[in-house]
Prior knowledge:
- It holds the Pfam family LMWPc.
- One of its GO terms (molecular function) is protein tyrosine phosphatase activity.
- The chain is of the alpha/beta class and 202 residues long.
- The chain is built from eight helices and four strands, in the order E-H-E-H-H-E-H-E-H-H-H-H.
- Helix 2 packs across helix 8 (177-201) and helix 6 runs antiparallel to helix 7.
Amino acid sequence: MNILFVCTGNTCRSPMAEAILKSKFQDGEVKSAGIFAGKGDSIAKNSEEVLQEINLKIDHQTRPVDNELLEWADLILTMTDRHKQTLALQYPDFHDKYYTLKEYVLINEEEWKELKRLYTEFEEKRSRILNESMDSLSEEELDRKLRKELKDDITKIEEKENSLPNINITDPFGGDLHMYRETRDELDRHINLLIKKMNEKD
């Protein structure tokens, strides 16, 4: 399996994730990239240091996300939901490969199906109201109608989202070594769960 980790600049979280998974996973290839990454920069000094503390080394040069990398990957694991949303907007052809690392290992498929169903129903209802009322109501009246008729749907979505775990990996950028260690350990815990999940699928 080809796995791609994605963060913002490809200097902190995604290269740490790449190094950690490479040290534990022999059944495929692992790469990392950044949505706003330059090309050929080094890993952040603190990321390199906290990896060395656990005897890991990575020969890393930053690279931006592109079609070729997304095509190559079987699974694309982002560090935050915002990274995932950005990829889905910029590269919609690969949306079925996008997950945050934490959602992929912590949330079962049924829960995600339920949330997607709620979103779909919300969008369908919203579109129907807009189509039926756009010509007959002012913008203000339409806004009031949408808020009133979609209130229960919004509440259901919020309740479902609040029941799910936090799906973002902490960004240590600009922090001290302690913060980088915490992010490294957070990545390590969830990568262990990733390996367990992949082994269960084999």
